[in-house]
Structure formats: C-alpha cells, structure tokens
Design goal:
Strand order of the largest sheet: 1-4-8-5-9-19
Radius of gyration: 27 Å
Domain Peptidase M20 dimerisation: 236-391
Number of domains: 2
CATH class of the largest domain: Alpha Beta
Number of helices: 15
Largest sheet: 6 strands, mixed
GO molecular function: dipeptidase activity; metal ion binding
Protein name: Peptidase M20 dimerisation domain-containing protein
GO cellular component, one term: cytosol
Helix content: 25-40%
CATH superfamily of the largest domain: Zn peptidases
Number of strands: 20
Mean pLDDT: 92
CATH topology of the largest domain: Aminopeptidase
Strand content: 15-25%
Low-confidence stretches: 1-31
CATH architecture of the largest domain: 3-Layer(aba) Sandwich
Keywords: Hydrolase, Metal-binding, Protease, Signal
C-alpha cells in the first residue's frame, strides 16, 4: 500500500508540474497584458497630447517651402525613440531636384533600435512622418493642424495617415517596458512617403546586410480596416500611371476661325479615353486580365467572412450605385483584379466661365491598378499597342505620345506565416473578434520593396478606420482605435515572442 501511495504521489506530482508548466506557457502572454492594458488606459490622455504635438507640425512633403517642418517632424520622432531608451541613426538620403531645377535636401530617415537580445525575435516597424497638404478652406470643419476631439474622434492631418499609427506603436513599446519588452525592436521612419519615398529604396538595399540582417518580422503600420472590425492586410495592388498626349497645332486656336476645319486634339483625346473602359468597368485593352490568378477557396472564404457594408459606403460618399451587386464581387474587383481610372486632362480650359479656344495640345491622365502577377512593363506595352491601334483607326493626322510616368508593383503575402497567426491572436485578445483578412485596392510600394530586398515576412497591420478620410478633408482617427490599437501592438509583440 505504501508503494502504491508513493507511486500515486509521484505520478500526481508529475502531472501537477506538467499542468502548471502548460498553464504558464499558455497564459504567459495574457497575464501581464492585463496590467499593460490597464497602463495604456490610464495614460491615454497623455498619448492624445503627444499626438496633438505631432499633428501641429505641418510636415507636408509636397511643399518644398515646408521641408524644414518635415525635418522637425523627423527630429521629434527621433526624440521619442530616444526617450524609450533606443539608439537612433539619422540617415542622409541625398538631394531632391525640384521642377525649377533647384535642389534641396531630402529629410533624413530614422533608423531606431530598442534592445538587442540575441535570444529574442526582432520586429521592425515601418511608418512615415509626412502628410498630404491640408487647408481649412479645402472644406475642413476644424483646423487641419490643430488636433480637435469631438464625438469620440481625433481630427487633424496625419492622425490616421500615419502619425497616429506610428505613435501607437511607440506608446505600446513604452507600456511593455514598464514590465518587460519581450522582443527586440527596430524602427524605420521616413518623411517623403506621400511623394514616392525618394531615396528610401536605396537605403533598404544598402542596409539589407546590416540593419535588416537580424530582423525576423516587418510590420507596416500604414493601413486601415474595411469596417469597424479589425483587419490584417496581406496584399495590395500595384499601379501604373499613364499620360497620353495629343497635339494638333503649335498654338491654341480660335474656335470661330478653326472650328470645323481641322482634327481637334481634344476630340481625339476624348475618343481615345473612351475606348479604355466600358460602362460595366471592364478594361477593353486586350490581354490585360491574362495574368490575374484564379480565385482560391481560401481567398473566397476570406471575402465571404469580411465585414463590409456597400450600402453604408454608398451613403457616406453619396454614390448612387456600384457596378456590382454583391459584397464579395465588390471586394474582389477592388482588390484582386486590375482597374482603370481616368483622372484628368491637362491643357484643357478648366476655369469658371467660358473660353472658346481649341487647345493645341492636351494630355489625358489615367492609371491602371495592377493585380499580383501583372508586370508593369507588359501592361505598358499592351496599353501602347492598343491606343496606337485605336488612333490609327481614328484616321487623324495629329501626333500622339504615350508615357508611363510612375509605377509600383503589387504585393501579396502568405497568411499562414507565423506573424499573421500572432496578429490574429492579438486581435482576438484585444477586440474579442476574429480578424478580417484584407487585400487592399490601393498601393503600398514599401511592402514590395521590403519583400523583394529583405526576403523577410511582411505584414500590414494598421489601426485606421474605414472612414478616416486619410487624404481628404476632416482626416481623423477614433480615440478607440488609437487606444485599443496601442493595446493591439503591445499584444502583437507578446504573441510574436511566444511563437
């Protein structure tokens, strides 16, 4: 009997140890998170004040006269990282040539390091400190560069794109440091994202074998959700921007003198633009859809489960009707298929009133959003061949010139990668919901650059809301997204450490 109880005691003790070990492993990330989340809640007003200071800096990268303000914004970000105990390198990205031929310095990139423990995984966050132009006369209801809180929202240029999202990451790091920072952190911040990130690609290539060499995961904060349900972005479309120029004379002409006796450039251009897309939104350029990958069952399920309300979107933006009926059709056509949009005509009279002139030269501007597997060089040839053919059919003596001015490749990641699992768990912990998996219709060139050069795992995990008006009037981020998003980034780092 004594041997039985001895064996039982030994077995029970072993079982108890295994249970305790199991519980410690499964709850290691969740127990301290309660304290961390509480800390974030208690300091949320302080976080809002920091965002107020950041929004106040008019870091408009489009305006060369405000370059010093972009520089100031980079310095403020550097200061915040240093206060977190990080080391920072301000990297010179060279010069920018302006349209008038003058050159000015590009704002430096910020490369930050917080902790360096070889036993811990390393996570690199990317964000940008520059913003789109904003003036109250554009139709803002608040001063764009004065953070204004109303109805639970924080209004101001850059609150969502991208200062608020970057600051949420830094606030999350600070909260974790009060207990333990479970990972190594690297940070890359730039100041020219809104104008194409000049100099950044070279920096990534140059530092791939140094700064990025020990990085395990790269998280891009510059993204938003499709609804109030949190989302993880795993793909974006690329873009090609096209200019088609038609010239009929050396000078603008009087319509009373020349109307009806020559082939007008404007008429030719409108004819060409009208051959690009039919009334259902289908692109008419031959071969344009050939590279689009077939829909998989896994993707189909993502689209079915994604929370997206077309009627709500129509009501918000005053849209009468979409081209497609179902939610799934809309999501697929706006994210995994190419689209063509006509943006404007340069050289045409556009002021109020009338001007009876025949423009000598006009330029139509349109873009094509590229699905993964589509190559811009192939698309450019398809567009060129098609428009030249159509212009020949027009039988016009005028000259035509087509150029592709700027392009960015599409990006697509694997949602089975470990950091996507970590992000799903973090969203579940913070919001109590399963995440939407999103393929965005827009373009984030940095994601492709990171993927092509570093070969690391890339994920877009933003906290922007579906109605934040990132480039428009009354840009905002909700206080809830800002604070709960801070918790999300803290939870993500814990989950990555537990992988």
């Amino acid at each position: 009997m004594r041997q039985f109880w001895k064996l039982f005691h030994s077995t029970a003790l072993t079982a108890m140890v295994l249970v305790i070990l199991f519980l410690s492993l499964t709850t290691a990330a969740s127990v301290p998170s309660d304290q961390i989340f509480q800390y974030i809640d208690e300091h949320q007003n302080e976080y809002v004040e920091r965002l107020k200071d950041w929004v106040a800096i008019e870091s408009d990268s489009n305006d060369a006269s405000k370059r010093h303000l972009v520089m100031n914004m980079m310095l403020l970000a550097e200061e915040r990282i240093r206060k977190l105990g990080g080391t920072v390198e301000m990297v010179d990205l060279g010069m920018q040539e302006l349209p008038d031929g003058n050159k000015i310095s590009l704002p430096p990139a910020v490369l930050g390091n917080i902790t360096k423990d070889p036993k811990k995984p390393t996570v690199c966050f990317y964000g940008h400190m520059d913003v789109q132009p904003a003036k109250i006369e554009d139709g803002w209801s608040t001063e764009p560069y004065t953070l204004t809180e109303k109805n639970g929202n924080l209004y101001g240029r850059g609150t969502s794109d991208d200062k608020g999202q970057v600051l949420a990451v830094l606030n999350a790091i600070e909260a974790l440091q009060k207990h333990e920072l479970p990972v190594n952190i690297k940070i890359l911040l730039e100041g020219m994202e809104e104008v194409g990130s000049p100099g950044l690609n070279t920096l990534i290539e140059q530092r791939n074998s140094t700064f990025f060499s020990d990085v395990d995961y790269i998280v891009v904060t510059d993204s938003s959700w499709l609804s109030n349900k949190p989302g993880i972005t795993y793909g974006t479309r690329g873009v090609g921007q096209f200019f088609v120029e038609v010239e009929c004379a050396k000078y603008d002409l009087h319509s009373g003198t020349f109307g009806g006796i020559l082939h007008e450039a404007m008429s030719d251009l409108i004819f060409l633009l009208n051959t690009l897309v039919d009334s259902s939104g289908h692109i008419l350029i031959p071969g344009i859809y050939e590279a689009v990958a077939p829909l998989t069952e896994k993707e189909k399920k993502f689209y079915e489960e994604t929370e997206y309300d077309p009627d709500q979107i129509k009501a918000k933006y005053g849209i009468k009707q979409f081209l497609n009926k179902t939610k799934e059709e809309l999501l697929m056509l706006r994210s995994r298929c190419p689209s063509l949009s006509i943006h404007g005509i340069e050289g045409a009279f556009s002021e109020p009133g009338t001007k009876t002139v025949i423009p000598a030269k006009v330029t139509g501007k349109f873009s094509i959003r590229l699905a993964p597997n589509m190559e811009l060089s192939v698309v450019e040839k398809q567009v060129t061949d098609y428009l030249n053919k159509k212009f020949t059919e027009r039988n016009s003596p005028n000259s035509i010139k087509l150029t592709c001015h700027r392009g960015a490749k599409p990006w697509l990641s694997d949602t089975d990668e470990l950091q996507y699992l970590a992000a799903r768990k973090a969203i579940k912990r913070v919001f109590g919901k399963e995440a939407d998996f999103i393929r965005a219709g827009g373009t984030i060139p940095i994601a492709t650059q990171f993927q092509d050069v570093t070969r690391k795992s890339i994920m877009l995990l933003g906290i922007g809301g579906p109605d934040d008006a990132a480039h428009g009037q009354d840009e905002k981020i909700s206080r809830n997204n800002f604070i709960e998003g801070t918790k999300l980034y803290a939870a993500l780092l814990q989950e990555l450490a537990a992988l």
